[in-house]
Amino acid sequence: MKSSGHHRALTLALLALLVVTAFRLRKSSIADDRSARSSEHRTPVSLGPPRTLSINHATQSELEALPGVGPALARRIIEARARGGSFRSLADLDAIRGVGPAMLRRLSPLLRFDSHVEGPARPDTHAEHVRQTALEEAR
What we know:
Elements: H1 2-40, E1 53-54, H2 60-64, H3 71-84, H4 90-94, H5 101-107, E2 111-112, H6 125-138
Parallel strand pairs: 1-2
């Protein structure tokens, strides 16, 4: 009788071990499925540096590729660059008709302000903005 009880205890221990192992495998499998599903919706991570456009060297077509910039605005940007020289910051773009706070927020991560472009010295941006506003109000 002793061996029968010992055999029964061993069988129950093995059965318990089997149940625990099966439970852990199932739990791990569910976690893997959730992880796989959530990673399907993630945006891929870029391993290279972010691509930016030099506003001081951009062509008409490169400017038009920017979000919210059409042919007319691209032309005004190029004309302002030719008249005033290099853009030094986003504030310089604010003086261009069609560029406002929302556009500046959208373009900020996409542009860089490097290298000098020959042309007259760019006037004080605030003074130019005030002048532009006064001209537009006078119309």
